[in-house]
Every structure is written in structure tokens, then in C-alpha cells.
Amino acid sequence: MAEPRHCPCPYCDLDDPTRPEPVGGWILRDEHWLVGQGDPDTTMAGGVRITSRRHYVDFADMDIEEATSFGLLVTVLDRALRAATGAERVHVLSTRDRLQHFHARLYPRPATHPLRGTEFLNAPQHSLTEDAERTVHAVRDRLQVSTPAFPEPDAVSGDLPGRR
Ligand SMILES: [Zn+2]
H or E segment at 35? Predict the structure, then answer.
């Protein structure tokens, strides 16, 4: 029998090998973050959730490494999601009102979509599993291209570099 978990929160053991991976597999796993496609029944293809490895709720609870890496992560995901989906804009949403473990969701909004802003975010979402999987693979491929273009977090001084 496994030892009792330190925390009963369902987002604290997302990476447990006994739990199923998100559709298409994890897009990114590093020391601070897990990134995966949302459930196709309720999420558009390319709608991804960033979940912190460590248990905390608010942005204010991040340490400097988490805060720095979150900014870089959103930047590379913005590039990758736009490249993979052709979206005009990637919306970022993080309320943590229902599940109190830090997470944020990114939603690519196509230029041709009739809705904007919170109306776009409030509209019902779904996707076909195969579309979601295809998008996950495309995003992962794009991340492998763009991630090495970033300096280490301690070298960031304010201006983010463009892709080289
Ligand atoms: Zn947790």
C-alpha cells in the first residue's frame, strides 16, 4: 500500500503513474509545471491547463523561480499555441475558485471566431478527441523548437528575446 498522501488535493498527484495522462499525453512536464490538454468533452482543441507541481493557491504564493518560470512558460505556450492552431490570440484564465491548487488555462481564439473576450471564454467548448490529440502533438513539436531560444531564468533582465 502506498503511504497516505501529504495532501488530499486532486491536483497534487496529477503526475502519479497510476493516473491517466491528459489526451495526447503531457505537453510539458518540468520541475514546476504540468501542462496538458483539457477534457475534449468540455474544452476546445488547444485549450490547455498549466498546473503547479507544488501545492499553493495564489500568484502571491509563488517563489521567485515559480514566478519567473510561469512568465516564460506562458510566453512559449502563447507562441506554440498560436503557431499550432493559427489562433489570433491566446486567452489566459485563472480563477482557482473551484479547485484551490494553482492552475491557469490557455484558450486559443481564432481570428474568425465571432466572439471576443469574456464572451468567447463563456461560450460552451468541446472538441473531437482526434483533433485534440493532433493539436497536442503540434504544440509539443512547436515547444521543442521555441524553448531553447530562451535564456536561463536568472539571465532574464526584463526584455524577452524574440525567436532566433
Ligand atoms: Zn494540491
Answer: strand 33-37
